[in-house]
Specification:
The complex is a heterodimer of chains A (about 375) and B (about 250).
Chain A: H1 7-24, H2 28-34, H3 39-47, H4 65-79, H5 81-100, H6 103-114, E1 121-123, E2 139-143, E3 146-157, E4 164-171, E5 176-183, E6 189-191, E7 205-216, E8 220-221, H7 227-263, E9 265-266, E10 269-270, H8 275-302, H9 308-337, H10 348-355, H11 365-376
Parallel strand pairs in A: 1-4, 2-4
Antiparallel strand pairs in A: 2-3, 3-7, 4-5, 5-8, 6-7, 9-10
Chain B: E1 2-6, E2 9-11, E3 17-19, E4 22-24, E5 30-32, H1 34-50, E6 53-60, H2 64-67, H3 69-73, E7 78-83, H4 92-105, E8 111-115, H5 126-134, E9 138-147, E10 151-157, E11 162-168, E12 171-175, H6 187-193, E13 198-201, H7 235-244
Helix pairs in contact in B: 4-5
Classes of the chains: A alpha+beta (about 375), B alpha/beta (about 250).
Amino acid sequence: MDFTLSKEQLLLQKMARDYAEKFIEPIARQIDEENKIPQEIIEGLGELELFGIPFPEEYGGADAGYDGYTLVMEQISKVSGGVAMTIAAHTLGLGAIRSFGTEEQKKKYLPAGCKGKEIASFAFTEPGTGSDPKQLSSIAVKEGDYFILNGTKRFISNANYPGPMVIFAKEMESGEVTAFILEKWTEGYSISEPWEKVGHRGGILVDVYMKDIKIPAENLLGKVGQGFPILLLGIALGKIGTSTAALGATLAAYEEGVKYAREKTHRDKPIAKFQAIQLKIADLAIKYETSRWLCYRLGCLANNIKDPAQFAREAALTKAYAGDVVVEAAHIAMDVHGSYGLMKDYKVERILRDALIGPQIEGVSDMQRMIIAGAALR
Amino acid sequence: MNIVVAMKQIPDLQQIRIRNREPVLDAVPLTLGNIDKNALEAAVAFKESHGGKVTVLSAGSEDLEDTIKEALAAGADEAFLVLDDELDGADSEAIAGILGAALNRIEDKDLIIFGEGSGDNYSGQVGPRVAEILGIPLVTYASSIEINDKTAKVVRSLEDCEEIIELTLPAAVSVLAGINEPRIPSVTQILKAGKKPKEILEMDDLGLALAEKQVITLSNLAPESERKQILLKSADELVKALSSQSLIGR
Protein backbone atom coordinates (compact mmCIF):
# COMPACT_ATOMS: atom_id res chain seq x y z
CA MET A 1 0.00 0.00 0.00
CA ASP A 2 1.53 3.28 -1.10
CA PHE A 3 -0.33 6.52 -0.61
CA THR A 4 2.04 8.68 -2.65
CA LEU A 5 1.03 10.28 -5.92
CA SER A 6 3.07 9.59 -9.06
CA LYS A 7 4.81 12.44 -10.90
CA GLU A 8 2.07 12.30 -13.54
CA GLN A 9 -0.62 12.56 -10.87
CA LEU A 10 1.20 15.47 -9.23
CA LEU A 11 1.43 17.18 -12.61
CA LEU A 12 -2.29 16.63 -13.24
CA GLN A 13 -3.03 18.19 -9.87
CA LYS A 14 -0.69 21.10 -10.60
CA MET A 15 -2.16 21.63 -14.05
CA ALA A 16 -5.67 21.89 -12.63
CA ARG A 17 -4.49 24.13 -9.79
CA ASP A 18 -2.58 26.42 -12.18
CA TYR A 19 -5.56 26.76 -14.50
CA ALA A 20 -7.99 27.29 -11.63
CA GLU A 21 -5.83 29.91 -9.91
CA LYS A 22 -4.92 31.75 -13.08
CA PHE A 23 -8.18 31.76 -15.00
CA ILE A 24 -11.07 30.85 -12.69
CA GLU A 25 -10.09 32.36 -9.34
CA PRO A 26 -9.99 35.98 -10.63
CA ILE A 27 -13.63 35.66 -11.78
CA ALA A 28 -14.92 33.15 -9.22
CA ARG A 29 -16.95 35.79 -7.43
CA GLN A 30 -18.36 37.06 -10.72
CA ILE A 31 -19.38 33.50 -11.67
CA ASP A 32 -21.11 33.19 -8.30
CA GLU A 33 -22.89 36.54 -8.55
CA GLU A 34 -23.98 36.19 -12.17
CA ASN A 35 -24.71 32.46 -11.89
CA LYS A 36 -22.97 32.06 -15.23
CA ILE A 37 -19.67 30.59 -16.45
CA PRO A 38 -18.03 32.59 -19.26
CA GLN A 39 -17.68 30.65 -22.49
CA GLU A 40 -13.89 31.11 -22.50
CA ILE A 41 -13.67 29.07 -19.30
CA ILE A 42 -15.61 26.23 -20.92
CA GLU A 43 -13.27 26.45 -23.90
CA GLY A 44 -10.18 26.56 -21.66
CA LEU A 45 -11.31 23.48 -19.75
CA GLY A 46 -11.94 21.77 -23.09
CA GLU A 47 -8.46 22.58 -24.39
CA LEU A 48 -6.91 21.02 -21.29
CA GLU A 49 -9.14 17.94 -21.88
CA LEU A 50 -10.87 18.32 -18.52
CA PHE A 51 -14.19 17.24 -20.03
CA GLY A 52 -12.78 13.85 -20.99
CA ILE A 53 -10.49 12.90 -18.12
CA PRO A 54 -11.60 9.31 -17.36
CA PHE A 55 -12.65 8.29 -20.87
CA PRO A 56 -10.61 6.08 -23.21
CA GLU A 57 -8.37 7.63 -25.80
CA GLU A 58 -10.09 5.69 -28.59
CA TYR A 59 -13.21 7.82 -27.96
CA GLY A 60 -11.27 11.07 -27.70
CA GLY A 61 -10.80 10.92 -23.93
CA ALA A 62 -7.67 11.72 -21.95
CA ASP A 63 -7.54 8.26 -20.38
CA ALA A 64 -6.41 9.54 -16.98
CA GLY A 65 -8.84 7.34 -15.06
CA TYR A 66 -11.30 8.33 -12.38
CA ASP A 67 -8.36 8.72 -9.99
CA GLY A 68 -6.97 11.45 -12.24
CA TYR A 69 -10.48 12.91 -12.36
CA THR A 70 -10.63 13.21 -8.55
CA LEU A 71 -7.32 15.11 -8.46
CA VAL A 72 -8.49 17.59 -11.07
CA MET A 73 -12.00 18.02 -9.64
CA GLU A 74 -10.60 18.79 -6.19
CA GLN A 75 -8.50 21.67 -7.52
CA ILE A 76 -11.23 23.14 -9.72
CA SER A 77 -13.81 22.89 -6.97
CA LYS A 78 -11.47 24.54 -4.48
CA VAL A 79 -11.80 27.69 -6.58
CA SER A 80 -15.32 27.40 -8.00
CA GLY A 81 -17.95 24.83 -7.06
CA GLY A 82 -20.06 25.93 -10.03
CA VAL A 83 -17.34 25.15 -12.57
CA ALA A 84 -16.60 21.84 -10.86
CA MET A 85 -20.26 20.81 -10.96
CA THR A 86 -20.43 21.59 -14.67
CA ILE A 87 -17.59 19.12 -15.24
CA ALA A 88 -19.12 16.61 -12.81
CA ALA A 89 -22.60 16.61 -14.40
CA HIS A 90 -21.03 16.35 -17.85
CA THR A 91 -18.82 13.43 -16.81
CA LEU A 92 -21.86 11.72 -15.26
CA GLY A 93 -23.83 11.96 -18.52
CA LEU A 94 -20.93 10.96 -20.72
CA GLY A 95 -20.00 8.17 -18.27
CA ALA A 96 -23.44 6.57 -18.68
CA ILE A 97 -23.01 6.59 -22.48
CA ARG A 98 -19.55 5.10 -22.10
CA SER A 99 -20.79 2.35 -19.76
CA PHE A 100 -24.03 1.42 -21.52
CA GLY A 101 -23.85 2.87 -25.04
CA THR A 102 -23.45 0.91 -28.23
CA GLU A 103 -20.22 1.30 -30.17
CA GLU A 104 -22.03 3.67 -32.55
CA GLN A 105 -23.37 5.77 -29.69
CA LYS A 106 -19.94 6.00 -28.07
CA LYS A 107 -18.33 7.01 -31.35
CA LYS A 108 -21.04 9.57 -31.97
CA TYR A 109 -21.17 11.30 -28.58
CA LEU A 110 -17.93 10.74 -26.68
CA PRO A 111 -15.36 12.53 -28.91
CA ALA A 112 -17.18 15.89 -29.01
CA GLY A 113 -18.02 15.56 -25.33
CA CYS A 114 -14.46 14.74 -24.31
CA LYS A 115 -13.20 17.85 -26.10
CA GLY A 116 -15.83 20.04 -24.46
CA LYS A 117 -17.41 20.89 -27.82
CA GLU A 118 -20.63 19.42 -26.44
CA ILE A 119 -21.57 19.36 -22.77
CA ALA A 120 -23.51 16.35 -21.51
CA SER A 121 -26.35 16.13 -18.98
CA PHE A 122 -28.05 13.41 -16.96
CA ALA A 123 -31.77 13.86 -16.35
CA PHE A 124 -33.64 11.70 -13.93
CA THR A 125 -35.26 13.90 -11.25
CA GLU A 126 -38.80 15.14 -11.83
CA PRO A 127 -40.96 17.62 -9.94
CA GLY A 128 -42.93 14.85 -8.25
CA THR A 129 -40.44 12.02 -7.91
CA GLY A 130 -37.23 13.05 -6.17
CA SER A 131 -35.04 9.97 -6.46
CA ASP A 132 -37.81 7.36 -6.72
CA PRO A 133 -37.83 5.64 -10.13
CA LYS A 134 -41.23 4.06 -9.48
CA GLN A 135 -42.88 7.47 -9.56
CA LEU A 136 -41.35 8.56 -12.84
CA SER A 137 -43.95 10.40 -14.92
CA SER A 138 -42.05 11.21 -18.12
CA ILE A 139 -43.22 8.86 -20.83
CA ALA A 140 -41.77 7.45 -24.04
CA VAL A 141 -44.09 6.04 -26.70
CA LYS A 142 -42.65 3.98 -29.55
CA GLU A 143 -43.84 5.20 -32.95
CA GLY A 144 -42.14 3.51 -35.88
CA ASP A 145 -38.42 4.24 -35.75
CA TYR A 146 -38.81 6.81 -33.00
CA PHE A 147 -39.71 7.20 -29.37
CA ILE A 148 -41.88 10.20 -28.59
CA LEU A 149 -40.94 11.75 -25.24
CA ASN A 150 -43.13 13.92 -23.05
CA GLY A 151 -42.58 15.12 -19.51
CA THR A 152 -40.71 17.52 -17.23
CA LYS A 153 -37.33 17.06 -15.56
CA ARG A 154 -36.24 19.09 -12.56
CA PHE A 155 -32.89 20.52 -11.37
CA ILE A 156 -30.97 19.41 -14.47
CA SER A 157 -27.35 20.53 -14.85
CA ASN A 158 -25.87 21.67 -18.14
CA ALA A 159 -29.27 21.51 -19.85
CA ASN A 160 -28.58 24.88 -21.48
CA TYR A 161 -25.50 23.64 -23.39
CA PRO A 162 -25.79 21.74 -26.68
CA GLY A 163 -24.85 18.07 -26.34
CA PRO A 164 -26.26 14.70 -25.33
CA MET A 165 -28.59 14.27 -22.36
CA VAL A 166 -29.10 10.84 -20.83
CA ILE A 167 -32.76 10.97 -19.93
CA PHE A 168 -35.04 8.54 -18.13
CA ALA A 169 -38.69 7.92 -18.95
CA LYS A 170 -41.28 5.19 -18.57
CA GLU A 171 -41.56 3.24 -21.82
CA MET A 172 -45.33 2.96 -22.30
CA GLU A 173 -45.58 -0.50 -23.85
CA SER A 174 -43.56 -2.23 -21.12
CA GLY A 175 -44.21 0.26 -18.34
CA GLU A 176 -40.49 0.00 -17.49
CA VAL A 177 -38.00 2.76 -16.71
CA THR A 178 -35.83 3.23 -19.79
CA ALA A 179 -32.87 5.45 -20.66
CA PHE A 180 -32.47 7.42 -23.87
CA ILE A 181 -29.89 9.75 -25.36
CA LEU A 182 -31.62 12.99 -26.18
CA GLU A 183 -29.84 15.67 -28.18
CA LYS A 184 -30.51 18.91 -26.36
CA TRP A 185 -32.28 21.70 -28.25
CA THR A 186 -33.94 19.22 -30.58
CA GLU A 187 -37.51 20.17 -31.58
CA GLY A 188 -39.85 20.13 -28.57
CA TYR A 189 -37.04 20.78 -26.06
CA SER A 190 -37.16 23.81 -23.81
CA ILE A 191 -35.82 24.84 -20.42
CA SER A 192 -36.82 27.11 -17.55
CA GLU A 193 -34.88 30.05 -16.20
CA PRO A 194 -32.04 28.84 -13.95
CA TRP A 195 -32.99 28.08 -10.35
CA GLU A 196 -31.48 30.66 -7.99
CA LYS A 197 -29.65 28.20 -5.78
CA VAL A 198 -27.56 28.90 -2.70
CA GLY A 199 -24.19 27.54 -3.86
CA HIS A 200 -22.30 25.99 -6.80
CA ARG A 201 -23.56 29.00 -8.69
CA GLY A 202 -22.54 29.14 -12.32
CA GLY A 203 -23.21 25.43 -12.60
CA ILE A 204 -26.82 26.18 -13.38
CA LEU A 205 -29.82 23.96 -12.70
CA VAL A 206 -32.94 24.28 -14.83
CA ASP A 207 -36.14 22.39 -15.45
CA VAL A 208 -36.39 20.67 -18.82
CA TYR A 209 -39.67 20.48 -20.72
CA MET A 210 -40.16 17.76 -23.31
CA LYS A 211 -43.06 18.18 -25.69
CA ASP A 212 -43.43 15.43 -28.28
CA ILE A 213 -39.67 15.12 -28.70
CA LYS A 214 -38.82 12.57 -31.38
CA ILE A 215 -35.85 10.44 -30.38
CA PRO A 216 -34.56 7.99 -33.00
CA ALA A 217 -34.89 4.38 -31.81
CA GLU A 218 -31.09 3.96 -32.11
CA ASN A 219 -30.77 6.49 -29.28
CA LEU A 220 -32.20 4.03 -26.80
CA LEU A 221 -29.47 3.65 -24.15
CA GLY A 222 -29.16 0.00 -23.17
CA LYS A 223 -32.40 -1.91 -23.53
CA VAL A 224 -36.03 -1.10 -22.84
CA GLY A 225 -36.49 -1.59 -19.10
CA GLN A 226 -32.77 -1.28 -18.31
CA GLY A 227 -33.14 2.24 -16.97
CA PHE A 228 -32.78 1.30 -13.32
CA PRO A 229 -29.32 -0.37 -13.52
CA ILE A 230 -28.15 2.49 -15.77
CA LEU A 231 -29.41 4.94 -13.20
CA LEU A 232 -27.76 3.10 -10.30
CA LEU A 233 -24.31 2.81 -11.85
CA GLY A 234 -24.55 6.26 -13.47
CA ILE A 235 -25.42 7.89 -10.16
CA ALA A 236 -22.74 5.87 -8.33
CA LEU A 237 -20.12 7.14 -10.80
CA GLY A 238 -21.65 10.60 -10.50
CA LYS A 239 -20.93 10.54 -6.78
CA ILE A 240 -17.21 10.71 -7.57
CA GLY A 241 -17.95 14.16 -8.98
CA THR A 242 -20.18 15.33 -6.13
CA SER A 243 -17.80 13.92 -3.50
CA THR A 244 -14.75 15.59 -5.02
CA ALA A 245 -16.66 18.84 -5.48
CA ALA A 246 -17.25 18.68 -1.71
CA LEU A 247 -13.60 17.76 -1.18
CA GLY A 248 -12.42 20.85 -3.07
CA ALA A 249 -14.59 23.09 -0.89
CA THR A 250 -13.22 21.29 2.20
CA LEU A 251 -9.69 22.08 1.02
CA ALA A 252 -10.71 25.69 0.39
CA ALA A 253 -12.16 25.91 3.92
CA TYR A 254 -8.95 24.45 5.35
CA GLU A 255 -6.68 26.81 3.40
CA GLU A 256 -8.77 29.89 4.11
CA GLY A 257 -8.93 28.97 7.81
CA VAL A 258 -5.15 28.61 8.03
CA LYS A 259 -4.56 31.79 6.03
CA TYR A 260 -6.87 33.90 8.17
CA ALA A 261 -5.49 32.45 11.42
CA ARG A 262 -2.00 33.51 10.35
CA GLU A 263 -3.00 36.97 9.13
CA LYS A 264 -5.52 38.15 11.70
CA THR A 265 -3.90 39.60 14.77
CA HIS A 266 -5.27 40.08 18.25
CA ARG A 267 -3.26 41.97 20.83
CA ASP A 268 -0.30 42.08 18.47
CA LYS A 269 -0.10 38.39 17.71
CA PRO A 270 -1.73 36.24 15.07
CA ILE A 271 -4.84 34.41 16.27
CA ALA A 272 -3.05 31.20 15.15
CA LYS A 273 -1.16 31.49 18.44
CA PHE A 274 -4.36 30.86 20.43
CA GLN A 275 -5.16 27.27 21.31
CA ALA A 276 -8.87 27.72 20.59
CA ILE A 277 -7.98 28.57 16.98
CA GLN A 278 -5.35 25.82 16.80
CA LEU A 279 -7.99 23.20 17.69
CA LYS A 280 -10.16 24.42 14.85
CA ILE A 281 -7.26 24.28 12.41
CA ALA A 282 -6.52 20.72 13.54
CA ASP A 283 -10.16 19.75 12.96
CA LEU A 284 -10.01 21.27 9.47
CA ALA A 285 -6.87 19.24 8.70
CA ILE A 286 -8.49 16.01 9.97
CA LYS A 287 -11.66 16.57 7.98
CA TYR A 288 -9.76 17.41 4.82
CA GLU A 289 -7.35 14.48 4.98
CA THR A 290 -10.03 11.89 5.74
CA SER A 291 -12.31 13.17 3.00
CA ARG A 292 -9.43 13.38 0.57
CA TRP A 293 -8.29 9.77 0.87
CA LEU A 294 -11.83 8.41 0.69
CA CYS A 295 -12.40 10.40 -2.50
CA TYR A 296 -9.10 9.33 -4.09
CA ARG A 297 -9.87 5.73 -3.17
CA LEU A 298 -13.30 5.96 -4.81
CA GLY A 299 -11.63 7.24 -7.98
CA CYS A 300 -9.25 4.27 -7.96
CA LEU A 301 -12.13 1.82 -7.38
CA ALA A 302 -14.08 3.33 -10.29
CA ASN A 303 -11.27 2.47 -12.69
CA ASN A 304 -12.04 -1.20 -12.33
CA ILE A 305 -15.59 -1.88 -11.19
CA LYS A 306 -16.15 -5.60 -10.76
CA ASP A 307 -19.36 -5.48 -8.73
CA PRO A 308 -21.61 -2.45 -9.41
CA ALA A 309 -23.54 -2.98 -6.15
CA GLN A 310 -20.33 -3.00 -4.13
CA PHE A 311 -19.16 0.11 -5.95
CA ALA A 312 -22.50 1.80 -5.27
CA ARG A 313 -21.95 1.15 -1.56
CA GLU A 314 -18.44 2.64 -1.67
CA ALA A 315 -19.73 5.64 -3.61
CA ALA A 316 -22.55 6.18 -1.09
CA LEU A 317 -20.12 5.95 1.81
CA THR A 318 -17.71 8.46 0.26
CA LYS A 319 -20.47 10.84 -0.75
CA ALA A 320 -22.13 10.71 2.67
CA TYR A 321 -18.84 11.46 4.39
CA ALA A 322 -17.46 14.08 2.00
CA GLY A 323 -20.87 15.75 1.72
CA ASP A 324 -21.36 16.05 5.47
CA VAL A 325 -17.78 16.94 6.34
CA VAL A 326 -17.60 19.84 3.90
CA VAL A 327 -20.38 21.65 5.76
CA GLU A 328 -18.65 21.06 9.10
CA ALA A 329 -15.33 22.28 7.66
CA ALA A 330 -16.89 25.39 6.14
CA HIS A 331 -18.54 26.22 9.49
CA ILE A 332 -15.22 25.80 11.30
CA ALA A 333 -13.46 28.03 8.76
CA MET A 334 -16.20 30.60 9.26
CA ASP A 335 -15.76 30.37 13.03
CA VAL A 336 -12.04 31.09 12.57
CA HIS A 337 -13.02 34.21 10.62
CA GLY A 338 -15.56 35.35 13.21
CA SER A 339 -17.99 37.96 11.91
CA TYR A 340 -15.69 38.82 8.99
CA GLY A 341 -16.57 35.41 7.58
CA LEU A 342 -20.12 36.58 7.01
CA MET A 343 -18.96 39.24 4.60
CA LYS A 344 -18.70 38.71 0.86
CA ASP A 345 -15.21 40.24 0.99
CA TYR A 346 -14.01 36.93 2.43
CA LYS A 347 -14.08 33.71 0.45
CA VAL A 348 -15.38 31.61 3.33
CA GLU A 349 -18.90 32.97 2.83
CA ARG A 350 -19.03 31.45 -0.67
CA ILE A 351 -17.30 28.29 0.52
CA LEU A 352 -20.06 27.73 3.08
CA ARG A 353 -22.78 28.30 0.47
CA ASP A 354 -21.04 25.84 -1.89
CA ALA A 355 -20.62 23.39 0.99
CA LEU A 356 -24.37 23.35 1.68
CA ILE A 357 -24.89 21.65 -1.68
CA GLY A 358 -22.76 18.67 -0.59
CA PRO A 359 -25.18 16.75 1.64
CA GLN A 360 -28.20 17.41 -0.61
CA ILE A 361 -27.09 16.76 -4.18
CA GLU A 362 -27.37 13.39 -5.94
CA GLY A 363 -29.23 11.79 -3.06
CA VAL A 364 -29.29 13.36 0.39
CA SER A 365 -26.84 12.05 3.01
CA ASP A 366 -29.51 9.95 4.73
CA MET A 367 -30.23 8.19 1.47
CA GLN A 368 -26.53 7.36 1.16
CA ARG A 369 -26.72 5.91 4.65
CA MET A 370 -29.63 3.71 3.60
CA ILE A 371 -27.45 2.28 0.81
CA ILE A 372 -24.52 1.74 3.21
CA ALA A 373 -26.75 0.11 5.84
CA GLY A 374 -28.47 -2.00 3.19
CA ALA A 375 -25.08 -3.45 2.20
CA ALA A 376 -23.94 -3.90 5.81
CA LEU A 377 -27.12 -5.65 6.94
CA ARG A 378 -27.63 -7.78 3.86
CA MET B 1 15.62 23.58 -36.82
CA ASN B 2 16.61 21.81 -33.64
CA ILE B 3 16.52 23.67 -30.38
CA VAL B 4 18.09 22.53 -27.13
CA VAL B 5 16.71 24.02 -23.92
CA ALA B 6 18.83 23.77 -20.78
CA MET B 7 16.77 23.44 -17.61
CA LYS B 8 17.67 23.07 -13.97
CA GLN B 9 16.01 20.91 -11.35
CA ILE B 10 15.36 22.97 -8.22
CA PRO B 11 13.20 22.68 -5.08
CA ASP B 12 9.69 24.07 -5.59
CA LEU B 13 10.25 27.57 -4.23
CA GLN B 14 6.58 28.05 -3.37
CA GLN B 15 6.73 25.16 -0.94
CA ILE B 16 9.88 26.14 0.92
CA ARG B 17 9.35 27.31 4.47
CA ILE B 18 11.77 29.57 6.26
CA ARG B 19 12.73 28.67 9.81
CA ASN B 20 15.23 30.87 11.67
CA ARG B 21 15.94 32.57 8.35
CA GLU B 22 17.06 29.26 6.79
CA PRO B 23 15.09 27.47 4.07
CA VAL B 24 13.65 24.12 5.16
CA LEU B 25 14.13 21.84 2.16
CA ASP B 26 12.99 18.54 3.68
CA ALA B 27 10.22 16.92 1.66
CA VAL B 28 9.99 19.88 -0.70
CA PRO B 29 9.06 18.55 -4.16
CA LEU B 30 11.43 19.17 -7.05
CA THR B 31 10.50 21.12 -10.14
CA LEU B 32 12.19 22.99 -12.97
CA GLY B 33 13.29 26.63 -12.77
CA ASN B 34 10.62 29.19 -13.61
CA ILE B 35 12.63 31.13 -16.19
CA ASP B 36 13.78 27.83 -17.66
CA LYS B 37 10.08 27.23 -18.39
CA ASN B 38 10.02 30.48 -20.37
CA ALA B 39 13.05 29.23 -22.32
CA LEU B 40 11.19 26.00 -23.08
CA GLU B 41 8.02 27.85 -24.08
CA ALA B 42 10.02 29.99 -26.53
CA ALA B 43 11.44 26.84 -28.11
CA VAL B 44 8.12 24.99 -28.27
CA ALA B 45 6.30 27.99 -29.74
CA PHE B 46 8.96 28.21 -32.43
CA LYS B 47 8.70 24.50 -33.17
CA GLU B 48 4.93 24.77 -33.53
CA SER B 49 5.14 27.60 -36.01
CA HIS B 50 8.23 26.53 -37.96
CA GLY B 51 8.68 22.79 -37.27
CA GLY B 52 11.78 21.12 -35.88
CA LYS B 53 12.56 19.42 -32.62
CA VAL B 54 13.00 20.52 -29.03
CA THR B 55 15.44 18.65 -26.80
CA VAL B 56 15.53 19.41 -23.09
CA LEU B 57 18.95 19.10 -21.50
CA SER B 58 19.57 18.87 -17.79
CA ALA B 59 22.06 17.59 -15.25
CA GLY B 60 21.11 16.68 -11.70
CA SER B 61 20.28 14.00 -9.17
CA GLU B 62 18.48 10.76 -10.03
CA ASP B 63 15.12 12.47 -9.29
CA LEU B 64 15.61 14.40 -12.51
CA GLU B 65 14.33 11.47 -14.53
CA ASP B 66 10.92 12.11 -12.97
CA THR B 67 11.15 15.91 -12.75
CA ILE B 68 11.95 16.25 -16.45
CA LYS B 69 8.44 14.97 -17.29
CA GLU B 70 7.31 18.54 -16.62
CA ALA B 71 9.32 19.71 -19.61
CA LEU B 72 8.23 16.77 -21.77
CA ALA B 73 4.59 17.52 -20.88
CA ALA B 74 5.09 21.18 -21.77
CA GLY B 75 6.15 20.32 -25.32
CA ALA B 76 9.78 19.13 -25.39
CA ASP B 77 10.15 16.16 -27.75
CA GLU B 78 12.97 14.37 -25.98
CA ALA B 79 15.27 14.67 -23.00
CA PHE B 80 19.01 14.39 -22.66
CA LEU B 81 19.95 13.91 -19.01
CA VAL B 82 23.15 13.59 -17.05
CA LEU B 83 22.35 11.96 -13.73
CA ASP B 84 24.48 11.92 -10.61
CA ASP B 85 23.30 12.50 -7.06
CA GLU B 86 26.42 14.60 -6.44
CA LEU B 87 25.21 17.15 -8.99
CA ASP B 88 22.65 18.77 -6.68
CA GLY B 89 24.37 21.87 -5.40
CA ALA B 90 27.18 21.70 -7.99
CA ASP B 91 28.44 25.16 -8.98
CA SER B 92 27.95 26.92 -12.31
CA GLU B 93 31.37 26.00 -13.65
CA ALA B 94 30.83 22.28 -13.06
CA ILE B 95 27.32 22.30 -14.55
CA ALA B 96 28.45 24.33 -17.57
CA GLY B 97 31.25 21.81 -18.18
CA ILE B 98 28.79 18.92 -18.05
CA LEU B 99 26.21 20.61 -20.27
CA GLY B 100 28.96 21.59 -22.72
CA ALA B 101 30.18 17.99 -22.91
CA ALA B 102 26.62 16.73 -23.29
CA LEU B 103 25.89 19.25 -26.05
CA ASN B 104 28.88 17.95 -27.96
CA ARG B 105 27.04 14.63 -28.07
CA ILE B 106 23.86 16.21 -29.47
CA GLU B 107 24.01 16.58 -33.24
CA ASP B 108 22.14 19.21 -35.21
CA LYS B 109 21.65 21.88 -32.60
CA ASP B 110 20.83 25.23 -34.14
CA LEU B 111 19.93 27.12 -31.01
CA ILE B 112 20.50 26.56 -27.31
CA ILE B 113 18.14 28.46 -25.02
CA PHE B 114 18.68 29.14 -21.31
CA GLY B 115 16.70 31.02 -18.71
CA GLU B 116 18.51 34.23 -17.72
CA GLY B 117 19.20 32.68 -14.31
CA SER B 118 18.25 29.59 -12.37
CA GLY B 119 15.27 29.63 -10.03
CA ASP B 120 17.39 28.98 -6.95
CA ASN B 121 20.85 30.58 -7.18
CA TYR B 122 20.21 32.87 -10.13
CA SER B 123 23.89 33.28 -10.96
CA GLY B 124 23.15 33.61 -14.68
CA GLN B 125 26.52 32.05 -15.47
CA VAL B 126 25.71 28.70 -17.01
CA GLY B 127 24.50 30.03 -20.38
CA PRO B 128 27.54 32.25 -21.03
CA ARG B 129 29.94 29.56 -19.82
CA VAL B 130 28.39 26.93 -22.10
CA ALA B 131 28.54 29.30 -25.09
CA GLU B 132 32.23 29.87 -24.35
CA ILE B 133 32.92 26.14 -24.07
CA LEU B 134 31.19 25.47 -27.40
CA GLY B 135 32.67 28.53 -29.06
CA ILE B 136 29.32 29.83 -30.28
CA PRO B 137 27.83 33.36 -30.10
CA LEU B 138 25.63 34.27 -27.15
CA VAL B 139 22.99 36.88 -26.42
CA THR B 140 21.71 37.28 -22.87
CA TYR B 141 18.50 38.86 -21.50
CA ALA B 142 16.45 38.22 -24.62
CA SER B 143 12.91 39.59 -24.65
CA SER B 144 12.18 38.24 -28.12
CA ILE B 145 13.78 35.84 -30.57
CA GLU B 146 13.09 35.76 -34.27
CA ILE B 147 14.71 32.91 -36.16
CA ASN B 148 15.39 32.88 -39.87
CA ASP B 149 17.12 30.17 -41.80
CA LYS B 150 20.69 30.52 -40.56
CA THR B 151 20.40 33.54 -38.32
CA ALA B 152 18.48 34.73 -35.29
CA LYS B 153 17.44 38.28 -34.50
CA VAL B 154 17.26 38.81 -30.76
CA VAL B 155 16.01 41.81 -28.79
CA ARG B 156 18.20 42.17 -25.71
CA SER B 157 16.43 44.12 -22.97
CA LEU B 158 18.73 46.00 -20.68
CA GLU B 159 17.73 48.30 -17.85
CA ASP B 160 17.50 51.48 -19.89
CA CYS B 161 17.71 50.37 -23.49
CA GLU B 162 17.11 47.58 -25.92
CA GLU B 163 19.71 46.13 -28.27
CA ILE B 164 18.73 44.32 -31.44
CA ILE B 165 21.34 41.73 -32.28
CA GLU B 166 21.61 39.40 -35.23
CA LEU B 167 23.46 36.16 -34.66
CA THR B 168 24.66 33.39 -36.91
CA LEU B 169 23.41 29.97 -35.88
CA PRO B 170 24.31 27.82 -34.05
CA ALA B 171 24.08 30.21 -31.13
CA ALA B 172 23.04 30.44 -27.50
CA VAL B 173 20.42 32.78 -26.05
CA SER B 174 19.31 33.36 -22.48
CA VAL B 175 15.76 34.66 -22.12
CA LEU B 176 13.99 36.92 -19.66
CA ALA B 177 10.98 35.76 -17.67
CA GLY B 178 8.76 38.24 -19.52
CA ILE B 179 9.42 36.78 -22.96
CA ASN B 180 6.26 34.67 -22.85
CA GLU B 181 3.72 32.95 -20.66
CA PRO B 182 4.49 29.23 -20.33
CA ARG B 183 1.51 27.09 -21.32
CA ILE B 184 -0.42 24.79 -19.03
CA PRO B 185 -0.12 21.26 -20.46
CA SER B 186 -3.25 19.22 -21.18
CA VAL B 187 -4.07 15.89 -19.52
CA THR B 188 -2.83 13.85 -22.48
CA GLN B 189 0.41 15.80 -22.71
CA ILE B 190 1.07 15.04 -19.05
CA LEU B 191 0.25 11.35 -19.37
CA LYS B 192 2.39 10.91 -22.48
CA ALA B 193 5.39 12.81 -21.11
CA GLY B 194 6.92 9.71 -19.55
CA LYS B 195 6.77 7.86 -22.87
CA LYS B 196 8.88 10.38 -24.80
CA PRO B 197 12.48 9.40 -25.58
CA LYS B 198 15.11 10.05 -22.97
CA GLU B 199 18.84 9.60 -23.28
CA ILE B 200 20.42 9.18 -19.89
CA LEU B 201 24.13 9.46 -19.27
CA GLU B 202 26.30 9.32 -16.22
CA MET B 203 29.38 11.44 -15.61
CA ASP B 204 31.63 8.53 -16.62
CA ASP B 205 29.93 8.32 -20.01
CA LEU B 206 31.03 11.89 -20.68
CA GLY B 207 34.52 11.17 -19.40
CA LEU B 208 34.00 13.70 -16.65
CA ALA B 209 34.52 13.72 -12.92
CA LEU B 210 32.98 16.30 -10.66
CA ALA B 211 35.70 18.85 -9.93
CA GLU B 212 36.19 20.37 -6.53
CA LYS B 213 33.75 23.19 -6.04
CA GLN B 214 35.10 26.61 -6.82
CA VAL B 215 32.21 28.20 -4.96
CA ILE B 216 31.64 27.35 -1.33
CA THR B 217 28.28 28.34 0.12
CA LEU B 218 28.84 29.64 3.63
CA SER B 219 25.22 30.29 4.44
CA ASN B 220 21.88 30.54 2.70
CA LEU B 221 19.64 32.96 4.56
CA ALA B 222 16.31 34.55 3.79
CA PRO B 223 16.53 38.36 3.78
CA GLU B 224 15.39 39.99 6.99
CA SER B 225 12.50 42.32 6.45
CA GLU B 226 12.85 45.31 8.68
CA ARG B 227 9.66 47.14 9.49
CA LYS B 228 9.92 50.88 9.39
CA GLN B 229 7.29 51.20 12.13
CA ILE B 230 5.91 54.51 10.93
CA LEU B 231 2.64 55.38 12.65
CA LEU B 232 0.15 57.44 10.67
CA LYS B 233 -3.04 58.90 12.02
CA SER B 234 -5.24 59.13 8.94
CA ALA B 235 -5.77 57.75 5.47
CA ASP B 236 -4.74 61.14 4.05
CA GLU B 237 -1.39 60.90 5.80
CA LEU B 238 -0.94 57.37 4.48
CA VAL B 239 -1.67 58.47 0.90
CA LYS B 240 0.78 61.38 1.24
CA ALA B 241 3.50 59.16 2.71
CA LEU B 242 3.13 56.52 0.01
CA SER B 243 3.00 59.15 -2.75
CA SER B 244 6.10 60.89 -1.44
CA GLN B 245 8.01 57.63 -1.83
CA SER B 246 6.48 57.02 -5.26
CA LEU B 247 4.87 53.83 -4.00
CA ILE B 248 1.48 54.90 -5.37
CA GLY B 249 0.27 57.33 -8.00
CA ARG B 250 3.24 56.88 -10.26
